[in-house]
Specification:
Layout (H helix, E strand, L loop, with lengths): L7 H14 L21 H12 L23 E3 L2 E5 L9 E8 L2 E10 L3 H13 L5 H7 L1 E2 L7 E6 L4 H7 L1 E8 L2 E7 L6 H17 L12
Antiparallel strand pairs: 1-2, 2-3, 3-4, 4-8, 5-6, 6-7, 7-8
Length: 224
C-alpha cells in the first residue's frame, strides 16, 4: 500500500491556521478566546516579551490618552455609521472585557472583544498575551502578524489572509488588533467586508470621542 507522506511544515502550518483563527472547518463560527490575565514572570511572560521584540514593539512607548474605566463600554455600542455595534453582557467578575459583534444589515461582518485595562502598558501586554496564549511555536505566530506603524490608535497589529504577497494584498485582512490608551480591541473579520479598516476606524473614533468627553475617565496614567 502506498502511503502519502505529508511534509511536517504543512502539518504545522495547518495547525497554526486552526489554532490562531479558531476555525476548524468551513463555516464554523470563530471561538472567543478565554479572558486573558496580565502576564507575569515565567513562560507566558517570556513569550509575550519575545513576541514584542520580534514585532518591534518598544517597551518605552507611552500613551498620552486619559485612563478610562469600564463605564466607557456603555457609551460606544448601538447603531453607528459603519454598522451596528453590539456588546454582550460581561461575564461574572470580568467587567473589563466584552464580546462584540458588528452587524452590516443582518449580516455579521466581524466578531471579537474589547478590553479595558488599568494602564496602557497592561492593555498592550494583555493583547500580546492573547496572541501567544496557545501552544504554537513563536516563529509561526510572528509570521502571521504585521505591525502597522501608522495604523490605528497607539498600536495596530493586523493579520493578513494567507497566500502569496499579492494574494494577501488582494484578499485583505483576517484580523485587526489595536490599542487606544488603556483600551484594546480585537476584530475577527468573518465575511471579508469591503473595507475592514473602516470598521476598526469606526470603533477607534467611538473610543477616542468618548475619552474626549470624559466618559468613564479615571486619573491620568501615571498620576497620583
Amino acid at each position: 500500500m502506498n502511503v502519502l507522506k505529508i511534509p511536517k511544515c504543512l502539518v504545522a502550518d495547518a495547525a497554526a491556521v486552526l489554532m490562531v483563527t479558531g476555525v476548524g472547518s468551513a463555516g464554523e463560527a470563530l471561538r472567543e478566546p478565554s479572558p486573558v490575565q496580565v502576564p507575569g514572570p515565567g513562560v507566558a511572560g517570556s513569550r509575550v516579551e519575545q513576541l514584542r521584540k520580534a514585532l518591534g514593539i518598544s517597551e518605552s512607548v507611552r500613551s498620552s490618552r486619559p485612563v478610562v474605566g469600564e463605564a466607557i463600554l456603555q457609551t460606544i455600542q448601538g447603531e453607528q455609521a459603519f454598522g451596528f455595534l453590539k456588546l454582550e453582557e460581561p461575564e461574572t467578575g470580568v467587567d473589563h472585557r466584552r464580546t462584540l459583534k458588528i452587524l452590516e444589515g443582518k449580516e455579521v461582518a466581524a466578531t471579537g472583544f474589547i478590553t479595558v485595562s488599568p494602564s496602557h502598558e497592561q492593555a498592550v501586554a494583555r493583547l500580546l498575551a492573547e496572541m501567544v496564549g496557545n501552544s504554537l511555536p513563536l516563529e509561526i505566530i510572528v509570521r502571521k502578524y504585521e505591525v502597522r506603524r501608522h495604523g490605528l490608535g497607539d498600536l495596530c497589529i493586523v493579520q493578513p489572509r494567507r497566500g502569496t504577497p499579492a494574494e494577501r494584498k488582494q484578499q485583505g485582512l483576517q484580523s485587526i488588533r489595536f490599542v487606544v490608551g488603556n483600551v484594546a480591541v480585537v476584530l475577527m473579520l468573518l465575511d471579508r467586508p469591503a473595507d475592514p479598516m473602516r470598521l476598526a476606524k469606526g470603533i477607534e473614533k467611538l473610543i477616542v470621542d468618548s475619552m474626549a468627553r470624559g466618559a468613564g475617565r479615571q486619573r491620568p496614567e501615571g498620576g497620583s
